[in-house]
Design a protein that fits this description.
Length: about 325
């Protein structure tokens, strides 16, 4: 029996090799790197107590972080928690997840990593439920880290949102404590609530962006869409390529709530100015009719014309230019 036990322990020690996991690549981001180290420390403690199962569990979580996987606080269903402790642990996990979704791991990586490791430690000790001092130590470490984490997150997050357009926006955030420039979609800084201190710019993951700014993003009006339709020379007949654009234009209008359509007619500089003034209006009216005749219900349209006075391509008088023979349609 003694020999069998010795072999079994040796086998476990080889299987759960902390040195192997410790030698794995450290995750790139601060939060994951700190959490990686803390899970290894927890595994070390448990294996020292010959708790191979929990040692392996913490090593697996550390290895997942090294492999670039996201590791959330452990779920209660994964452990057999005493019934009288379930409510407290469930509320504590929700509190931690909420802080992480508000950017805790980005803006306060040390506090967030400590809170998560301490929570998982608390879960592990509570499942065993025979070492009150160890349970209390993990719980108190979690509570202290959470209090600091939530204190840091009381500030305002300022971020550059992705607008789906080619132009690049930039914002300089300035307080009495300093300044940072945000010039990448998703980049954000946390402004300290009392001190005005600014964190270095960090790109927010999609889930954090949704938590912080989801309502604001949903409330933003849809940006205007612009269509340009071109005409045959001297006529109000659309070119074939422009006729092909009409279904997309109609789809854009139908997809908006209470749309407004601005229609502006133009000509090139071939022909008398008075004739072109009339022709540009006729072109705008043709497009308006083309739109309104195919929509299921009335829409607000604002029609105007510029004749030959607003060319896209400046030309001398009597020069034919296809890009100037156009109607611009803006859907708002």
């Amino acid at each position: 029996m003694g020999l069998a036990l010795a072999v079994g322990v040796a086998g476990c020690a080889e299987r759960y090799d902390i040195a192997r996991v410790r030698a794995l690549p450290v995750p790139a981001d601060d939060f994951s790197a700190l959490l990686f180290a803390q899970y290894i420390a927890l595994a070390d403690d448990e294996i020292a107590e010959v708790d191979w199962r929990d040692g392996a569990r913490f090593l697996e979580r550390a290895e997942a972080l090294s492999n670039g996987q996201a590791v959330e606080p452990e779920e209660l269903d994964n452990r057999e928690i005493p019934p009288d402790s379930v409510a407290n642990l469930a509320a504590s996990r929700f509190r931690l997840i909420s802080a992480l979704l508000r950017g805790g791991g980005i803006f306060a990586p040390a506090e967030a990593a400590t809170a998560q490791a301490a929570f998982d430690c608390w879960m592990q000790e509570q499942e065993e439920n025979f070492q009150p001092r160890d349970i209390g130590a993990c719980q108190n470490r979690y509570l202290a880290a959470m209090a600091r984490l939530e204190e840091i997150l009381e500030g305002d997050v300022i971020a550059i949102l992705e607008d789906g357009r080619a132009g690049q926006s930039a914002v300089e955030v300035v307080t009495s404590a300093g300044a940072v420039v945000l010039n990448t979609p998703g980049a954000a800084t946390l402004v300290g609530d009392v001190t005005g201190t600014l964190t270095d710019p960090r790109v927010l993951p999609a889930e954090v962006m949704e938590t912080l700014f989801g309502e604001a993003i949903d409330a933003e009006p849809t940006p205007p869409e612009r269509f340009v339709l071109y005409f045959e020379e001297g006529t109000n007949d659309l070119t074939p390529a422009s006729l092909d654009l009409v279904p997309a234009l109609l789809q854009e209008i139908v997809g908006r709530e209470s749309p407004r359509i601005d229609i502006v007619g133009h000509t090139d500089r071939v022909g008398p100015e008075a004739f072109n003034a009339t022709l540009s209006r006729r072109r705008a009216d043709v497009v308006r009719a083309l739109i309104t005749d195919q929509l299921p219900q009335p829409v607000v349209t604002i029609v105007s014309s510029s004749g030959e006075q607003d060319p896209i391509v400046p030309t001398a008088d009597e020069v034919a230019e296809p890009l100037n023979r156009r109607v611009e349609v803006t859907v708002r």
